[in-house]
């Protein structure tokens, strides 16, 4: 009989437990319009099973949630996604994905409490769904990076053109990602960390 079975011992799974060296916890918010890949990004990068609150789209969303370009999407996040990623032995990021639809904006105040920065996910087929989100972040003075989630049939604009279309200042990082890939999602978070660091070093850069 093989006693080295794959059975897990009782108690928390190893990946659920943070190392004792973890000393800094940073809250990061993932925002963006409907169907841009927020839940996907949190799910691909989180080292704990992400918590997500999806609800089958109901009549409340009909005619309001723009499903053009996301025809296969039948669930929409009503409250938030939650995940965690350790950047190194000391730094842990807590990720909060939050809906971009206007009817959920009442959630924003609480979710942005204590957040150090944000990732704005963008779908180039529907840039306009990001305008309000970007405007609200600027209003609140929350530093953010923009991540273009590349969907196969999405137009492939040069990044400086996108920067112009989204009216982003030159200092705001903009990068392309594939939210389904862990390494790509991680790169986005690292870009945000680098940006936050640069702001802390030279605050006038913001
Ligand atoms: N091709 C492609 N599809 C994606 C990508 N990210 C998300 N999706 C799909 O797009 C749909 C919407 O993603 P979801 O994460 O639910 O969007 P959310 O509303 O922002 O949370 C889902 O069907 C995903 O599987 C991506 O990078 N590439
Ligand atoms: Mg979602």
UniProtKB/TrEMBL annotation:
Coiled-coil ranges from the UniProt annotation: none
Record bears the keyword GTP-binding: yes
CDD domains membership: Ras_like_GTPase
UniProt keywords, alphabetically: GTP-binding, Hydrolase, Nucleotide-binding
Family label: Belongs to the GPN-loop GTPase family.
Protein name, entry field: ATP/GTP-binding protein
Taxonomic source organism: Streptomyces formicae
